[in-house]
Amino acid sequence: MRTAFDDAHEDRQILEERFGDHGAFTPAADGVVEEDRVLAFLQVREALSEIHGEIEEIDSEMGSFEELADGEEPPMMEALPAIFGLTKSMMGLPWIFGEIERSRNRALIEVEMGLGEYIYIYMLAYHDQLVAPTQEANLFGASAANSRVRANLREMIQGQLAAARAAESADEGLVAALAVEVQALDADDRRIPWQDGLPAQIAASFAGHRERLDSTYSAAAAEFELLNSSVEGGGLRIEMN
Q1: How confident is the model at residue 123, as a pLDDT?
Q2: CA-based nearest residue to 128, from 208, 71, 213
Q3: HEC string for the chain
Q4: pLDDT, tens digit, for every residue of 138-166?
Q5: pLDDT the model gives residue 38
Q6: Domains identified in the chain, total number
Q7: Going by fewer Cβ within 10 Å, which terminus of the chain is more open, N or C?
């Protein structure tokens, strides 16, 4: 189990050396994601399909167990196998968390994409799923956008606003829209960028790949997709945030 986290940490160091810290990424002034970057993002997402399948299997098992628990008291011969099976699956979760991070970081190195750019594209590509989820997760069910991710995103949009203002022929409408969004992000630390709706030019970045993008989104895995681990005390303590 420890190996997956160690490998992920080594690859994260490589990513940070090449591309800087998460919040260091600055989107294009208009926020548009170029075609080659969408395709690179999809390569990373597809590299995670196997580990997504494993966590979705546990999530489904949890859902079945909850249905069993919410119904009439089940016979012991039915309840005990469900309890033992779920316990075994839950014991394997730490390995799965490490593997999600390791697989993600390795794929990012291969496609030459930093963690900051990945976070930015993730939030835009899966905007609808994050703002108004249609799939429920049984395991934990939290958002992919934790406090650290939201802080990174605020930095990115602030950088985007600065870039838009500094452009030789600044688009006043774009600058105004970005300024409003930055104010909204500053006022609500639980907000994600463009929570009220993506600008048309940004949404258009993903229009040609919508089906492929949707097929690589996993509601069950979303909470863990953007986490980074830290190993302390010689491996006796592993935190993910």
Answers
A1: 97
A2: 213
A3: CHHHHHHHHHHHHHHHHHHCCHHHCCCCCCCCCCHHHHHHHHHHHHHCHHHHHHHHHHHHHHHHHHHHHHCCCCCHHHHHHHHHHHHHHHHCHHHHHHHHHHHHHHHHHHHCCCHHHHHHHHHHHCHHHHHCCCCCCCCCCCCCCCHHHHHHHHHHHHHHHHHHHHCCCCCHHHHHHHHHHHHHHHHCCCCCCCCCCCCHHHHHHHHCCHHHHHHCCCCCCHHHCCCCEEEEHHHCEEEEC
A4: 777 677 888 999 999 999 999 999 999 99
A5: 98
A6: 1
A7: C
**75 pLDDT exceeds 80?**
no
pLDDT exceeds 60 at position 232: yes
**Opening angle at CA 46, ends 42 and 51, nearest 5:** 140
**Percent of the chain with pLDDT strictly greater than 90:** 62
Tokens of 142: 């939290």
The pair of three-digit structure tokens given for residue 42, joined into one six-digit string: 């999809």
Residue given tokens 């930095």 in the structure block: 155
The rounded distance, in Å, linking the Cα atoms of 101 and 142 is 17
Check if the beta carbon of residue 33 is closer than 8 Å to that of residue 202: yes
Q: What is the pTM of this model?
A: 0.88
